[in-house]
Hints:
The chain is of the alpha/beta class. It has 20 helices and 26 strands.
Amino acid sequence: MERDLIRERAWELVEKLTLEEKLGMIHGAQLFSTKGVERLGIPPLVMSDGPMGVRQEFEPDCWRAVGNTDDMVTYLPCNSALASTWNRALSFAVGSVLGEEARGRGKDVILAPGINIKRSPLCGRNFEYFSEDPYLTGELAASYIQGVQIHDVAACVKHFAANNQETERLTMDVDVSERALRELYLPAFYQCVTKGNSLSIMGAYNRLYKEHCCQSKYLLGEILRKEWGYDGVVISDWGGVHNTMLAAESQLDIEMSVTNNFQEYFMAEPLKEKIDQGVLSEAFVDEKVVHILMLMQRLHMIESEGGKRKSGAYNTPEHRQTALQAARESVVLLKNEDACLPLCHEQIKRILLVGENAKRIHSNGGGSAEIQALYEISPLMGIHMLLGGNVTVDFVQGYESMEKGAQEECNWQERSLEHGGGFVYTGKEDTKEAQRREELRNKAVEQVLEGNYDAVIFVGGLNHEYDSEGRDRSDMKLPYEQDILIHELLKVKQDLVVVMIGGSPVEMGEWIGEARAVVWSWYAGMEGGYALAEVLFGKVNPSGRLPETFYKTHMDCSAHCVGQFGGTDTVNYREGIFVGYRYNETFGVEPQFCFGHGLSYTEFFYEGAECKRESKSLENDGGILVSCQITNSGNRAGAEVIQIYQITECEEGKIWPATEEELESLVPVKELIGFKKVYLESGETKKVEILVKDIREGSKIGVGKSVEDICLVIS
Ligand code: BGC
């Protein structure tokens, strides 16, 4: 009803517009904005990047930051961090902060969330994405979008679709089976546009089945509009359009790009010429403008039902509180032998932090996801803040990165589309650096030996030199010879606490056997360093769970050992649906840490799992109601993530199928179908109920802590 009404109103307006006016609305007139039509009260559509905050202001026609001091914002944990919380309500809250800040900064569309499936740990933009699992991604991203959009700002879920690597992202063609597309790469988008009701969606740079996604008749026309009934706005990725006729005839609504020749964009003058020549009908343009005008009504930008538009707010104390809570819940305790952690504040007089990431700032890097954070608490600052003045907190660098900090050139974005739009980054090494690294290492080890410290924490991992748009990693190795450093530190300090910060997993094989306490922290936002300190010192009980498999090496990941990845014209996703844990579990490849893994300082005990069939009702679609009891049997309060998997035994699953037909009929042994995060006081028991969709015939339901740790199975 509402839909019909706003469509009707949009058509009424379209009739009043000239062709020039309409064309102005369907392509960039500035780097982040289209043109409005003043005489009819139609404003331009103003966009900005996310997802970790609203990006700084740029000049309208040049990638130079304006440089004012009023565009600093709340820096939110990256989407991988958010996914680690497995917390829908928190995802909604984080989305709500982003939406309110975007509105507060005067934006109409926030270019977030990024939800592409993590097919390989090497994809440089993985930190912007949620998970390797479509269900987890879809659930969290849909909540996030709902949070964004309560503030009269449109989310723009991106990048549709199968945008799973940066290498040659502008030209590469994805060759993926229809089944894998439907079961793995599309479901989260479907959730985002249906349940999440995302008011806009961004096309991907890459090609799919030979068509560029931003002008694909199949993806945008057949699937998005026809099958899914989508009537939101489809925006191209910046520079993702390549042909006037194809773009005009596809279901793309707005063409954006990285250069300032706005009138020459494919959907600007060249499109007008086609209409003037009579080779293209103006009706295609009208349909696009209708979508845009419907969006403007939904956001209360132009006359609509439902009152005044919200004004938003940014940098509020409540926003910082949400950033802190999300950071806390995102920390994943990977290993904790001999209860090394938490550290005891009272027993510590001297503490040493080793590693550049202890004091590094990450908000200003990563590509289009960079932001100007209002502040960013580093781990060093967070630990110092928490311990106060009676404890000596020392720092020694230990290793040195190459990155300069902020984006190296102001014109990064335009340049980033050269060379096919992305490449494989192998790092920069030279002998002088090797010498320098040895010096730094020796100094750190000496300081540990001589400093008489009660605790030593190594804080290393990656940074946005590696986790970045426009580049993929060549492997999962820790850069800057950190492996050697950790190894040497462990020799002199057996209870060394190892903290890794990064947007994607790293190889740990060189030292994981010896390290007793290992903590994973993502780019966790402005409060990340403080949240980490709270976890290390037991003020917060860790409750993060891995939203992706941490492989031992990237060659254990199916995209690399079965499929193709990287620099070929056509990238064959030969692994089909067997991505992430679906591959490892089915084919018996042991990861370093499995999907869903994450320890706590307390113990959770499961019992009494049951299930019953629920019929469809007004509140839900029906399915199977799984219930069980969870008890916190330890002596601290904590949160557990109950994970539900569909389990399908498959005998022949251990060997990679010989033919495509065999592969097509094979199902994964485990698939996530439900989850819930539950808070329990020490000694408390709760009954948990989770509604899951119907399962495959002959399959079972497993309840547990991770994909590997399923303790209760119901047939
Ligand atoms: C990225 C998008 C981003 C856009 C605008 C592109 O390079 O792929 O994710 O929203 O630029 O900055």
